[in-house]
Amino acid sequence: MKITAAVLRAVGQPFSIESVTLDDPGPGEVLVEIAGTGVCHTDISFKQGHWPFPVPSVLGHEGAGRVAAVGAGVTSLAVGDHVVMSNASCGACPSCLSGMPAWCPNASRLNNSGCRPDGSSTLHDDAGDIHGNFVAQSSFASHALSRDRFVVKVPEDIPLHLVGSFGCGIQTGAGAVLNVLKPAPGSTALIVGLGAVGLAAVAAAAASGCSRVLAADMNPDRFDAARTFGATDVIDASAGPLPELVRALLPTGVDAAVEASGSPRALRSAFESTHGSGRTVLVGAAPHGTEYALDSRSVLSGRTLVGAIMGLSNPRVFIPRLVDMYRRGQLPMEKIVQTYPLADIEKALADSASGAVVKPVVIP
Ligand SMILES: [Zn+2]
Ligand SMILES: [Zn+2]
């Protein structure tokens, strides 16, 4: 079918809005009519070539919409279902079979090669193939193709344009807390970097019963949102060394920290803001090749650092939990989402990159 998509013709260049051809859904595939797609910082990283993805291509990986057609063998979804799209995993490796698809060794190939596992393209134009299947969707478009396992049904009364980021940014931040840290009620947490990922971590820490949820960023414009998402304290990280600012509030440091800014310096600050056996989760995505420095004494005391991709979540289990949090007012997405027509996608990405808007969402 003919669809409208934002096509990246060359790395680092603006998208062009084009009419292209998307395959009909094959066996196991699902066609989604996109209602809204969140802009994630990794879209910008891929567009700028900091992370590799072939061109010409269609990016976008926080899509939500309605099922428009299903391929042969799809039984868990039907035309008209409201859905959030998420990332691909193989479903057959030990990690997938253990309920940990985020650790699937085949995930990178399935999400970032620009084609189906059999090498065929889902998108085409008169000149040939366009690389699609980006994070199993390529959803900066009017329609996107995925597979049934990566598409999560959500209730019809949930505004679709608010929940596309549950498939990436929100599950990354909330999952870092709920699936990795699992903080005890009454414990303390620090979240560094208050974009959508960090705010989701704030919300999850508050929902976990943390007695203090410290939220730090260099941009004070984020503090109102942080309080709305459940922060008990906000810290202007530009006001001095973060470990000292944290200890002015909690003299021994926090029990746990989440680094969601992507800055190597912020990781060290978060790590050193925990007490001597505190735990830090890294979710902020830095360009490939980025190195981190830690003082050996800060490690020797017993602190631990772990990374968590996609919040170590199992999307079909975890996204419904995020929907429940949204319903309870614990994820007030309406406070951070700003919508843009697909034709204004360059402005949406620019506003994300500058920090002017927490979660731009493009509407085809
Ligand atoms: Zn993302
Ligand atoms: Zn797997």
What's the CATH H-level superfamily name of the largest domain? Medium-chain alcohol dehydrogenases, catalytic domain
How many domains make up the coordinates? 2
Beta content comes to 25-35%
| Ligand roster | zinc ion
Number of strands: 17
EC number: 1.1.1.90
GO molecular function: aryl-alcohol dehydrogenase (NAD+) activity; S-(hydroxymethyl)glutathione dehydrogenase [NAD(P)+] activity; zinc ion binding
GO biological process, one term: formaldehyde catabolic process
Keywords: Metal-binding, NAD, Oxidoreductase, Zinc
Helix and strand topology:
Layout: E1 2-7, E2 16-22, E3 29-38, H1 41-47, E4 63-70, E5 82-85, H2 94-97, H3 107-112, E6 123-125, E7 128-130, E8 143-147, E9 151-153, H4 160-163, H5 169-181, E10 188-192, H6 196-207, E11 212-217, H7 223-229, E12 233-236, H8 242-249, E13 254-259, H9 264-273, E14 274-282, H10 296-300, E15 304-307, H11 315-327, E16 337-341, H12 345-354, E17 359-363
Parallel strand pairs: 10-11, 10-13, 11-12, 13-14, 14-15, 16-17
Antiparallel strand pairs: 1-2, 2-6, 3-4, 3-8, 3-17, 4-5, 5-9, 6-7
Helix pairs in contact: 5-6, 5-11, 8-9
One zinc ion binds next to loops.
